[in-house]
Protein backbone atom coordinates (compact mmCIF):
# COMPACT_ATOMS: atom_id res chain seq x y z
CA UNK A 1 0.00 0.00 0.00
CA UNK A 2 1.53 3.31 -0.99
CA UNK A 3 1.25 6.56 0.94
CA UNK A 4 -1.54 7.96 -1.25
CA UNK A 5 -3.63 4.81 -0.62
CA UNK A 6 -3.16 5.27 3.13
CA UNK A 7 -4.13 8.95 2.91
CA UNK A 8 -7.25 8.06 0.90
CA UNK A 9 -8.17 5.38 3.44
CA UNK A 10 -7.78 7.86 6.30
CA UNK A 11 -9.89 10.47 4.47
CA UNK A 12 -12.61 7.96 3.57
CA UNK A 13 -12.84 6.77 7.18
CA UNK A 14 -12.49 10.22 8.78
CA UNK A 15 -9.37 9.21 10.68
CA UNK A 16 -7.58 11.99 12.52
CA UNK A 17 -4.11 10.91 13.69
CA UNK A 18 -1.88 11.75 16.61
CA UNK A 19 1.48 10.09 17.06
CA UNK A 20 3.75 9.37 20.00
CA UNK A 21 7.02 8.50 18.31
CA UNK A 22 10.20 7.42 19.96
CA UNK A 23 12.51 5.67 17.49
CA UNK A 24 10.89 7.25 14.41
CA UNK A 25 11.17 10.76 15.94
CA UNK A 26 8.35 12.34 13.94
CA UNK A 27 8.78 10.47 10.66
CA UNK A 28 5.21 9.16 10.71
CA UNK A 29 3.80 12.69 10.78
CA UNK A 30 6.43 13.84 8.29
CA UNK A 31 5.50 11.12 5.81
CA UNK A 32 1.83 12.09 5.94
CA UNK A 33 2.62 15.80 5.75
CA UNK A 34 4.73 15.20 2.63
CA UNK A 35 1.45 14.70 0.72
CA UNK A 36 -0.24 18.05 -0.08
CA UNK A 37 -3.62 18.62 1.55
CA UNK A 38 -3.19 16.20 4.44
CA UNK A 39 -3.17 18.72 7.30
CA UNK A 40 -6.77 17.87 8.20
CA UNK A 41 -5.69 14.27 8.94
CA UNK A 42 -3.22 15.27 11.66
CA UNK A 43 -3.90 16.42 15.20
CA UNK A 44 -0.45 16.26 16.76
CA UNK A 45 2.87 14.48 16.61
CA UNK A 46 5.05 13.99 19.65
CA UNK A 47 8.66 12.82 19.58
CA UNK A 48 9.24 11.39 23.05
CA UNK A 49 12.59 9.76 23.59
CA UNK A 50 13.38 9.81 27.30
CA UNK A 51 11.48 7.89 29.96
CA UNK A 52 10.77 11.25 31.60
CA UNK A 53 9.18 12.63 28.42
CA UNK A 54 7.11 9.48 27.98
CA UNK A 55 5.88 9.90 31.55
CA UNK A 56 5.38 13.70 31.41
CA UNK A 57 3.52 13.96 28.10
CA UNK A 58 1.87 10.56 27.81
CA UNK A 59 1.50 9.26 31.36
CA UNK A 60 3.70 6.21 30.77
CA UNK A 61 4.39 4.67 34.17
CA UNK A 62 7.99 4.40 35.30
CA UNK A 63 6.97 1.04 36.79
CA UNK A 64 5.94 -0.17 33.32
CA UNK A 65 9.27 0.97 31.88
CA UNK A 66 11.22 -0.72 34.67
CA UNK A 67 9.23 -3.96 34.51
CA UNK A 68 9.03 -4.38 30.71
CA UNK A 69 11.85 -2.19 29.30
CA UNK A 70 11.59 0.93 27.13
CA UNK A 71 11.44 -1.29 24.04
CA UNK A 72 8.24 -3.17 24.85
CA UNK A 73 4.67 -3.39 23.65
CA UNK A 74 3.53 -2.48 27.16
CA UNK A 75 5.29 0.90 26.92
CA UNK A 76 4.02 1.43 23.36
CA UNK A 77 0.45 0.73 24.55
CA UNK A 78 0.71 3.27 27.38
CA UNK A 79 2.17 5.79 24.91
CA UNK A 80 -0.74 5.29 22.48
CA UNK A 81 -3.33 5.53 25.25
CA UNK A 82 -1.72 8.73 26.58
CA UNK A 83 -1.62 10.32 23.14
CA UNK A 84 -5.27 9.45 22.55
CA UNK A 85 -6.29 10.91 25.91
CA UNK A 86 -4.32 14.12 25.33
CA UNK A 87 -5.33 14.84 21.73
CA UNK A 88 -8.32 15.42 19.51
CA UNK A 89 -7.42 12.39 17.39
CA UNK A 90 -9.49 9.26 16.91
CA UNK A 91 -6.39 7.15 16.17
CA UNK A 92 -2.96 7.27 17.73
CA UNK A 93 0.12 5.40 16.68
CA UNK A 94 3.07 4.96 19.00
CA UNK A 95 6.41 3.26 18.72
CA UNK A 96 9.48 2.60 20.78
CA UNK A 97 12.50 0.66 19.66
CA UNK A 98 16.15 0.41 18.80
CA UNK A 99 17.07 1.89 15.43
CA UNK A 100 20.82 1.44 15.97
CA UNK A 101 23.63 1.45 15.40
CA UNK A 102 24.15 0.14 18.93
CA UNK A 103 21.79 -1.74 21.20
CA UNK A 104 20.53 0.40 24.03
CA UNK A 105 18.21 -2.08 25.77
CA UNK A 106 20.31 -5.04 26.85
CA UNK A 107 19.98 -7.99 24.51
CA UNK A 108 17.10 -6.66 22.38
CA UNK A 109 18.36 -6.76 18.76
CA UNK A 110 18.92 -3.58 16.78
CA UNK A 111 15.98 -2.99 14.44
CA UNK A 112 13.37 -4.10 16.98
CA UNK A 113 10.37 -1.76 17.13
CA UNK A 114 7.27 -2.09 19.31
CA UNK A 115 4.10 -0.45 18.03
CA UNK A 116 0.63 0.35 19.33
CA UNK A 117 -2.46 1.67 17.54
CA UNK A 118 -5.21 3.10 19.77
CA UNK A 119 -8.62 3.85 18.26
CA UNK A 120 -11.07 6.11 20.08
CA UNK A 121 -14.26 4.20 20.78
CA UNK A 122 -17.16 4.74 23.13
CA UNK A 123 -15.77 3.98 26.55
CA UNK A 124 -12.27 2.51 26.57
CA UNK A 125 -9.99 2.88 23.56
CA UNK A 126 -9.40 -0.19 21.43
CA UNK A 127 -5.65 -0.88 21.31
CA UNK A 128 -3.65 -3.19 19.07
CA UNK A 129 0.07 -3.82 19.45
CA UNK A 130 2.87 -5.76 17.85
CA UNK A 131 6.64 -6.02 17.67
CA UNK A 132 8.58 -6.19 14.43
CA UNK A 133 12.24 -6.29 13.49
CA UNK A 134 13.55 -4.30 10.53
CA UNK A 135 16.86 -4.64 8.70
CA UNK A 136 19.08 -1.79 7.60
CA UNK A 137 20.98 1.12 9.02
CA UNK A 138 19.49 3.53 11.55
CA UNK A 139 17.56 5.66 9.08
CA UNK A 140 16.37 2.68 7.03
CA UNK A 141 14.95 1.13 10.21
CA UNK A 142 13.25 4.39 11.18
CA UNK A 143 11.69 4.92 7.76
CA UNK A 144 10.58 1.28 7.47
CA UNK A 145 8.98 1.50 10.92
CA UNK A 146 7.16 4.73 10.04
CA UNK A 147 5.78 3.24 6.83
CA UNK A 148 4.85 -0.03 8.51
CA UNK A 149 2.87 1.76 11.22
CA UNK A 150 0.82 3.58 8.59
CA UNK A 151 0.36 0.51 6.39
CA UNK A 152 -1.21 -1.37 9.32
CA UNK A 153 -4.01 1.20 9.83
CA UNK A 154 -6.48 -0.45 7.38
CA UNK A 155 -5.96 -3.93 8.87
CA UNK A 156 -6.53 -2.81 12.44
CA UNK A 157 -9.43 -0.58 11.40
CA UNK A 158 -11.03 -3.62 9.71
CA UNK A 159 -10.63 -5.65 12.91
CA UNK A 160 -12.13 -2.81 14.90
CA UNK A 161 -15.16 -2.36 12.66
CA UNK A 162 -15.86 -6.09 12.35
CA UNK A 163 -16.35 -6.47 16.11
CA UNK A 164 -19.91 -6.58 17.40
CA UNK A 165 -20.96 -3.40 19.21
CA UNK A 166 -20.38 -3.31 22.94
CA UNK A 167 -23.43 -3.93 25.10
CA UNK A 168 -24.95 -0.75 26.44
CA UNK A 169 -25.99 -0.39 30.04
CA UNK A 170 -29.77 0.20 30.26
Describe this entry's structure for a reader.
- This protein is of the alpha/beta class.
- It has a single domain, classed as Maf protein.
- The chain has seven helices and five strands, in the order αβαβαααβββαα.
- The protein has helices at residues 3-12, 27-33, 51-58, 62-68, 73-85, 138-151, 153-162, and strands at residues 17-21, 42-47, 91-97, 112-119, 126-133.
- Strands 2-1-3-4-5 form a five-stranded mixed sheet, sandwiched between helices.
- It is globular and about 40 Å long.
Proportion in β-strands = 15-25%
Number of strands: 5
Order of helices and strands: HEHEHHHEEEHH
Write out the strand line-up for the largest beta sheet, numbering strands in chain order. Answer: 2-1-3-4-5
Structural class: alpha/beta
Task: Report low-confidence residues grouped into runs of 5 or more.
Answer: none
The number of helical runs is: 7
State the name of the first-level CATH class: Alpha Beta
Kindly report the name of the CATH homologous superfamily. Answer: CinA-like
What is the first-to-last residue Cα distance?
A: 42 Å
Largest sheet: 5 strands, mixed
**What is the fold-level CATH name, i.e. the topology?**
Maf protein
Task: Please give the CATH architecture.
Answer: Alpha-Beta Complex
Averaged pLDDT, please? Answer: 92
- As a percent range, the share of helical residues equals 40-55%
The structural domain count equals: 1
Coarse shape: globular
Gyration radius (Cα, Å) is 16 Å
Amino acid sequence: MDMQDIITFMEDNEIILATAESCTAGLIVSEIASIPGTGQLLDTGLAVYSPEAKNRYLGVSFDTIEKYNLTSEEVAIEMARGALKNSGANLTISNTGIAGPGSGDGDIPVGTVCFAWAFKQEGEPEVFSETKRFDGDRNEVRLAAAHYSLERIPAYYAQLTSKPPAAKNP
